[in-house]
Amino acid sequence: MVYSCELCGKAFRLQRMLNRHLKCHNQVKRHLCTFCGKGFNDTFDLKRHVRTHTGIRPYKCEICNKAFTQRCSLESHLKKIHGVQQQYAYKQRRDKLYVCEDCGYTGPTQEDLYLHVNSAHPGSAFLKKTSKKLAAILQTKLTSVLQRNAKLNEEDK
Fold it and tell me: Can you give the residue range of the structural domain that contains 130?
């Protein structure tokens, strides 16, 4: 099935992609870049744009170490420069990368990212946005790990 934009005719395979696209026709840009003032209709687009200012490039080529702000740019690079075609089955999820927008740290889980931000950037807006439930769960785990480490340190003495 194909979903088409009634305003410009652009077609999408997924309804959610059409819904996201429809925001581009809205003249009110609710999300503004704090670096340059450019406006975006979508927080994802703003986050991607901000990386052009911060220099954060979390997607790295394992062949030549060139880094990119977006996964699709890395995949395009792999295909064009190294002849490596990424093959994903229909609807197969690629491993998600959790990126610290303050320093570029990447982790495999949201928990890893939270723990990193909590220790490296305690005043980060990310911590304020993170749900209280997740924060409570992760804080409990962090406390447990710290207690376990303290216990191991005591045993070593």
Answer: 110-157
